Amino acid sequence: MSNTESDHADASADRTDRERTFGDYGGQYVPEALMPALQELEDAYERYVLENEDGFMDEFSERMRDFGGRPTPLQRADRLSERYDREIYLKREDLVHGGAHKLNNALGQVLLAKYMGKERIIAETGAGQHGTATAMAAAHLDMPCEIYMGRTDVNRQRPNVYRMRMNGAAVNPVEAGSGTLKEAINETLRDWATTVENTHYVIGSVVGPHPFPRLVRDFQSVIGAEAREQIREQAGRLPDSVVACAGGGSNTMGAFHEFVPDESVDLYAVEAGGSSLDIDEAAGVAPNSATLSTGTDGVLHGALTKLLQTDDGQIVESHSVSAGLDYAGVGPELSRLVETGRVTPTSVGDDAALNGFHRLSNLEGIIPALESSHALGCVEANHEELGDLVVVNVSGRGDKDLETVLEETEKRDLDAAPDVEVFDA
Amino acid sequence: MSREPRASRSERTGNEVTRELRTDGGEQLAATDSNIEAAIRENHPALITYITAGDPSLEDTRAYVEALDRGGADLIELGLPFSEPTAEGPTIQAAINRALAAGTTPAQFFDLVDDLSTEAPLLVMTYYNMILQYGPSEAARTSKAGAAKPQNKPDVRPFVERAADAGLSGIIVPDLPAEEAGPLRDACDDRDIDLVFIVAPTTEGERLDRIMSQVSGFAYVQARLGTTGARADVSNATHDSLTRLAGYDVPKAVGFGVSEGDHAAEIVAAGADGVIVGSALVDIIADHGAGDAPAAAELEAKARELKRGARRGREEAPEPEQP
């Protein structure tokens, strides 16, 4: 965290941080009732985050150190380096308190809400990672907290529901639609439209209306800021490439942001290819979440960005074996960085992600989240294009995914998987 | 059936009628009213009704629109369903889901509007993505793995052109605040379509001025924070909002939670030029299946009750506005 203050001094000098859009992407496509709250948040973002008023960023950094466990290590992966015949370094966000990078943003926003004088926290969650991070942060900072979670996700992510409740949060199941992340966001927006005067909505990724994409990115940018300093110290130079998985894109932007000005560093956003990259228009279903790779421009959840949608503009149901990547939109800044060519989107299907999961578990003794496993699957498939020095963001740990992985592995013939049928013997 | 005579949609030439506007100095100025403003001023206090197109089918929607027209609705909003209706409460969410399940598309929606001939001007209420994506360039936006995608930037104009050609008089977009409305405002101006903005209980000061300078047709006064849905009372926020808006010479109609004739009376008595009713009508539709004739009769009766309530409110209003 040693360079956080200087990073933010740089950021406040950059006037583009106060713009509502990234090129054409972004904006504020929300009901009128929310606009004053967004303006209030913009004001708080500028004062506390960009200008460190009242020492906000100092307190955030201290709490991320003492409560969150930062900085996280940048670790050379010896056996992967040998396998791919190049230097592979892992940014260990799986070691952040709660087991994922999500706390960086959740703690930042809950603290910001406190500085703003808000009395209540709400958040959406898909797989439950952002919900658990928000519940932890809210307990830590003594704020009442309610989490909206789709019914399907509540049923398939029971342990995370229990964790949120243990931390004192109320979990509200959302019955609408397919009962996943998209519906949870819709319902949280509806709550916020009703309670906006005393409530802060802790959005879970670099999505939503301005200023959320910038705010969340700035709280997450500690990932890349640390990694950039660490790789220079450990390898003596900047990496040739940084690889991160992308759903909504918060770990992606967090890992990339500090490297964006470093033109020698290639940035790869790895999306969930699911089982196929085609959209079934008639059924309104995409068997993938590869928004940057295959999506088209449109407006969802407050921002103009790339979306998985039908020709008419209806949002389709996305799919991934990894619940945390399963979203039909993506952060508007990533859409812009792909448009300008600074970020290269790529996708990895369910099978390759599962192999990535098993390979890291087996070779390095690290069980990665299924989301992060997509980044590892990309390294396996494309290592020859990644240069000699590669940083891979391990955005979270995979304990939460064990049930899914066992179930999905049994259905497949995966070259990196152990024989899971003997696990119960 | 007792109703005041109204100029019908088909009788008007173009979308504007001239009216005399009296300014503070007593000077006579010629100003133009849009179809929508004329409908509100001539039928003051106005009843504005919302139903979701395609719920439960577009054929039923046709019958319901005609019933509301007969029942005294002065403006009729038709919802073009979008899969993520974040401004709606459970009642209208369910209606939108029924309409989408029935396969309602923008193309079919406009075909229906082409065929409708109501006395009440029609508006479309939909989310911004539906407006952005409408257009003939389907091939250009079809997403296929591996195929090169000639991505057209989405554009609001094809939707506005089609809406104007179908005879729609106005557009309401619940997720489009004034800050983002420039392109749609320009496209609507070019085709003399009104763009109605929502004024929320949280809207005040400079934001209120900005919205009121952009609004046309009427200001949609959101009666309370939250989402759409029938409520049992009229909120204090309604009175506060009408007070804040009193100085602006734009018709004000109040929606979000209005479900009974008595609400309509109270809202008009508080100074509104119209009331907007949606969920209470959608509740009636939800109680009936496709092709069920009593639904239309109940909608007509409900419209009469609401219109009577609004008129009763006018008797109690402090300073009734003359058409």
Please supply descriptive tags for the structure shown above:
heterodimer; A: 425 residues; alpha/beta; Rossmann fold; 2 domains; four-stranded antiparallel β-sheet; 14 strands; 42% helix; 17% strand; disordered N terminus; B: 323 residues; TIM Barrel; eight-stranded parallel β-barrel; two-stranded antiparallel ribbon; 13 helices; Trp_synth_beta (chain A); Trp_synth_b_CS (chain A); pyridoxal phosphate (chain A); amino-acid biosynthesis (chain A); EC 4.2.1.20 (chain A)
Question: What can you see in these coordinates?
Answer:
Chain B: Residues 1-26, 304-323 are annotated as: Disordered. Chain B: The active site is at 77 (proton acceptor), 88 (proton acceptor). Chain B: The alpha subunit is responsible for the aldol cleavage of indoleglycerol phosphate to indole and glyceraldehyde 3-phosphate. The complex is a heterodimer of chains A (425) and B (323). Chain A is of the alpha/beta class and 425 residues long. Chain A has two domains: 23-67 and 102-216, 3-Layer(aba) Sandwich (Rossmann fold), CATH 3.40.50; 74-98 and 220-413, Rossmann fold. Chain A is 42% helix and 17% strand. In chain A, the strands form three sheets. Chain A has a six-stranded mixed beta sheet with strand order 3-4-14-9-10-13, sandwiched between helices. In chain A, strands 1-2-12-11 form a four-stranded antiparallel beta sheet. In chain A, strand 5 (120-125), helix 6 (129-140) and strand 6 form a beta-alpha-beta unit. The longest helix of chain A is centred in the first third of the chain and has 16 residues, at 35-50. Chain B is α/β, with parallel strands linked by helices. Chain B is built from 13 helices and ten strands. Chain B has helices at 35-42, 58-71, 90-101, 106-115, 128-133, 138-141, 157-165, 182-190, 205-214, 236-245, 261-269, 279-286, 293-316; strands spanning 16-22, 28-34, 46-52, 75-79, 122-125, 170-172, 194-199, 219-222, 252-255, 274-277. The longest helix of chain B is centred in the C-terminal third of the chain and has 24 residues, at 293-316. The model of chain B is unreliable at 1-14, 17-30 and 137-150 (pLDDT under 50).
